[in-house]
Amino acid sequence: DIVMTQSPDSLAVSLGERATINCKSSQSVLYNSNSKNYLSWYQQKPGQPPKLLIYWASARESGVPDRFSGSGSGTDFTLTISSLQAEDVAVYYCQQYYSTPLTFGGGTRVEIK
Amino acid sequence: QVHLVESGGGVVLPGGSLRLSCAASEFTFSDYGMHWVRQAPGKGLEWVALIPYDGSNTYYTDSVKGRFTISRDNSKNTLYLQMNSLRAEDTAVYYCAKDGNPFASGSKSYYFDYWGQGTLVTVSS
Questions:
Q1: DSSP state of B75
Q2: Residue A23: what pLDDT?
Q3: B85: three-class secondary structure by DSSP
Q4: Closest CB from B47, B111, B116 relative to A101
Q5: Are B72 and B34 in contact, with CB atoms under 8 Å apart?
Q6: Sign of the C-alpha dihedral, residues B60, B8, B55, B43?
């Protein structure tokens, strides 16, 4: 199984400042035949289902604000919120879809400082 | 807009059974693989099961193999999860989720682009 490890577990950022969340996979999720990283990011607010933010490690889902960006390749990935807004308070999860069982990181809680 | 509505959750005794349903609308259900993902109270997300668009096979996380069965009825646009021999550790909100790309074969799957609101399953005596 591919283990996904996120860091930090939580972070507090001032409004308008940058938030950075890291995700590391226990093996590469880069599929060589198409050069795509099988890695996605989700945002979950309290009492709501998760919402897709980023797929293929860096492709932003339609309707997602451009302050959200994803980067990385192979085993190391980053979700960046360039200018934190109040509505971004949530738990963020990375997920690999390279192979079953599909696995998620443990989540990172983002709060306002 | 894609719509996924889960139902069938509730309180069940350990060892009992429950069948969850997920009614899908506003997309061509028969073109997409579907998943069940669960979240224990206060915990993270755990993928449970996958069924490809054509129902040709099924895939499970190890902890539910032999106890849970995912199925689909493409004529009714509905996904199911039959849960038997339930344990306390199966207590969670169960979400159905749509695969992000059509016609993915076998165990191939993609990101989850739409999720239902979830249904709570509580296993307790």
A1: T
A2: 98
A3: coil
A4: B47
A5: yes
A6: negative
What pLDDT, in 10s, does the model give residues B29-69? 999 999 999 999 999 999 999 999 999 899 999 999 999 99
Q: Is the pLDDT of residue B73 over 80?
A: yes
3-state SS, residue B42:
coil
Whole-angstrom distance, CA of residue A39 vs CA of residue A83: 23
State whether residue A69 sits within 8 Å of chain B by CB: no
What tokens were used for B110? Answer: 């993609």
B4 near B24, Cβ under 8 Å?
yes
The per-residue pLDDT for range B15-37, each reduced to its tens digit, is 999 999 999 999 999 999 999 99
**What is the per-residue pLDDT for B24?**
98
Chain A residues within an 8 Å CB radius of B61: 101
Nearest to B28 by CA among B125, B101, B111: B101
Q: How far is CA B41 from CA A102, A105, B16, B94, B121, in A?
A: 20, 16, 20, 11, 10
Nearby residues of A98 by Cβ (< 8 Å), 6 or more positions away: A2, A25, A28, A29, A31, A38, A39
Contact status, residue A106 vs residue A5, Cβ threshold 8 Å? yes
Of A38, A44, A103, nearest to B47 by CB-CB distance is A103
Residue in B106, B111, B8 with CA at minimum distance from that of residue B58: B106
Pairwise CB contact (< 8 Å): A50 & B45: yes
